[in-house]
Amino acid sequence: WFASALERETQHPNFNQLQTWALTFSRETARSRKVGLGRIGNPILDCLHRYLRWDDRGTCFALWRVSPLVKPSEIRLFLRFDFVIEIGLKAVSAIAKAHPELSEAALHRRGDMAFPPISRSLWLSEDLEEPDELIRAELDRPYQQSPTDTNINQGRWPSVQSHYDLGNWPHLCRAARAAAVDAVARQLDLAQLTHELAARLELDTIVVKEQSQSRIQALSQSPREAGLAQKEWGMEMKMREALLAGIHEHGIRLDAAGAVFLAGVPLSP
Questions:
Q1: Where are any strands of DSSP class E within 19-169?
Q2: pLDDT for res 7
Q3: Which ranges of the chain have pLDDT less than 50?
Q4: CA dist 30 to 34, 38, 265, Å?
Q5: Any residues with CB less than 8 A from the CB of 92 and at least 6 apart, and which?
Q6: Dmax over Cα atoms in the chain, in whole Å?
Q7: Residue 148, SS3 per DSSP
Q8: Cα distances (Å, whole numbers) of residue 67 to 107, 125, 156, 220, 269
Q9: 8 A C-beta contact, residue 37 and residue 27
Q10: How much is the pLDDT for 10?
């Protein structure tokens, strides 16, 4: 997972292991210690991101929580959805495939600049309603060791079934996700946000276009350089058109999901 962060061509005078370089998130430390700066695009950070996306631990969970907010005989189910709202990358990926000389990762970062990713978390009850603040605070409490909290692993689902009917579980999860997507779209007013981001990119494109045209005119005495500048501007326009399409085709990606059963009694074996 971290192979691309290793310096395979670098040889150390004292030992033969593959080399990595010191890294810091502080710009001042990087300058004073003359080490790498940990920012998006650094190979180590890119490798770490890919690894985290591969490891699904924490992206899907289920928990049984004994709570004083419910009656001893009561069980209330709540589903949590963590969304990332981001630019659509279909057009951007198509540009990268058509032009291998372009870095798809760099294009994706430009997409993040045009449409800064937004993270939103939402709780819904089994009735597809958002809980009140008191219940939400109870749901957001950090995990505590049994008997208060019990992680529902694969072997414990039969015990849950003995307390709570899971026959409608697949339909409930799909319906809750759809309702959560709609709720997030309403909360963010995505139609208005999309309009504002698209207008900002179009305005920026006008400015960049004027600057590029001035540069091309300034190079009129050098046809070769003027031609290269014109070619660069043509590619820039293709990328900006792809970014604009991505803004309008933004996506709401489910990053993590979970279920919490608030109950008046512990989960029996």
A1: 23-24, 36-37, 60-66, 75-86, 118-125, 149-151
A2: 72
A3: none
A4: 5, 9, 54
A5: 104, 107, 108, 110, 111, 239, 242, 243, 246
A6: 86
A7: coil
A8: 48, 16, 19, 75, 18
A9: yes
A10: 67
